[in-house]
Amino acid sequence: MVLIAHLSDLHVGAINHMEKTLLDAIARINGMNPDLVVITGDLTENGYYLEFLKAREYLDLIENPLMVVPGNHDARHVGNETFEEIFHDRSSTLTNDNGDLTIIGLDSSEPDLDYGKVGRQQQIWMEKELLKAQKNNQYKIIALHHHIIPVPKTGRERNVLADAGDILQSLTDKNVDMVISGHKHVPHVWRVEKTVFVTAGTVSSLKLRGKDKNSFNTYKIEEDVLEINLNQVYGKKYLMARYDDKCGI
Ligand SMILES: [Fe+2]
Ligand SMILES: [Fe+2]
User: Fold this and answer.
1) What top-level class would CATH report for the domain 2-243?
2) Residues 47, 75 contacting (CB under 8 angstroms)
3) Where are the domains positioned within the chain?
4) C-alpha of residue 131 to centroid of ligand 1, in Å
5) What's the CA-to-centroid distance between 182 and ligand 2, angstroms?
6) Side-chain half-sphere CA neighbours of 246 within 13 A
7) What's the CA gap between 64 and 58, in Å, rounded?
8) Which of 15, 73, 95, 213 has the maximum number of C-beta atoms within 10 A of its C-beta?
9) How far is the CA of 81 from the centre of ligand 2 (A)?
């Protein structure tokens, strides 16, 4: 069994960023002892250097292996360069200890713009990484900030990935198991062919839809079973989806 914690949209530095909520979420995640932790962007509000330093301070509290990818807010004010200095490459991979699962993180941000794009060069890199993972018989997860498929009840669609069609085809052709993203601050699950697309809510920003609460997702991947849970930071844990048709490791 592999357990993954997925959080998104911290927005450190925003007036509506809730520090205590983030610290409590991190404490809960540490208590779960997941195999891997992934953060799908908008770590900061404005991409400022000091915001990145503060975000790093919070994320250093996470006790398990961590991958982060940048969001549109992180790419403001040359945050795309700062991201690499404070964290790691904007595109990266992370594999679990057993080596049976790999996460490929993509940078879908564009400097000082809100829309997202993977781009041809990064798509080629992603396809090479997916081929490697396929050869090694690994469970394949793609992590990126922008959603590839529109999320219901989030108003007029503006920021879906500009090259969503090309990337969607590549992901389903290459039999990616899961695609995880953030950006809309609204948790949702779609499934296209055999690929499951999950968006996370915001873990610590008050930019919430209706009565939504701050939350993070957890993925329990067992033999032939994938369980997707939404964990409210203060409140309940909800089962978002469960697939048992050979969807697991
Ligand atoms: Fe956000
Ligand atoms: Fe965003």
Assistant:
1) alpha beta
2) yes
3) 2-243
4) 31
5) 7
6) 3
7) 13
8) 73
9) 17
